[in-house]
Specification:
Elements lengths: L2 H13 L6 H17 L7 H14 L3 H15 L19
Helix pairs in contact: 1-2, 3-4
């Protein structure tokens, strides 16, 4: 059942709340909760998953953190986000 199907069923149940059984309402609410819980997950092909795992290991990031890093880097390189430039005359705190 797709998210649109669940939303349609929930809207229908809301319209006829007096007629819907508790059991049917519980099923709808559990499906909605499951969809919301899984809404943040992104599935990639196996080669992409392996590359993300390697990046996570290399940069000591979570999968979510690695995906955020990849998207931010891509957006900066393609000028969708401003690039954070270092001031050449500024203090680098011991790092070059």
């Amino acid at each position: 059942m797709t998210a649109a199907d669940i939303a349609a069923h929930l809207e229908d149940a809301a319209d006829r709340i007096k007629d819907i059984s508790i059991a049917d309402l519980q099923v709808l609410l559990r499906r909605a909760a499951l969809r919301l819980r899984n809404a943040g997950s992104i599935a990639f092909d196996d080669d992409m998953e392996e590359a993300i795992r390697n990046l996570c290991s290399e940069l000591v990031l979570t999968r979510e953190g690695a995906i955020r890093y990849i998207v931010r880097e891509w957006m900066e390189k393609n000028t969708y986000l401003p690039v954070h430039e270092l001031d050449e005359d500024g203090d680098v705190d011991g790092e070059a």
